[in-house]
Amino acid sequence: MAKIEKEKTDKEKLEESEEKLKKSEEKLKKSEEKLKKSEEKLKKVDDYIELELREEVIDPENPPNEMDLFADDVTKNVLREVKEKMK
To answer: Which of 78, 58, 74, 10 is nearest to 86 (CA)?
Structure first.
């Protein structure tokens, strides 16, 4: 009789462990999906920063004013700092 009781508890423990394993696998899958989405977003940000950091060709007939050049320099410096922190 005690042997039957022990087998039942062992079986119950096994079922509980299998349920926990399933839940853990589901959590892992969700985490992997979140990671993939985050990596895609990070790639987009990185691509945007690269695009913004490219040197612009200045049109000699319509040169930018001093404030525009200063703002561009500040923006590029901030983007460089962000890119360094992302690494």
So the answer is: 78
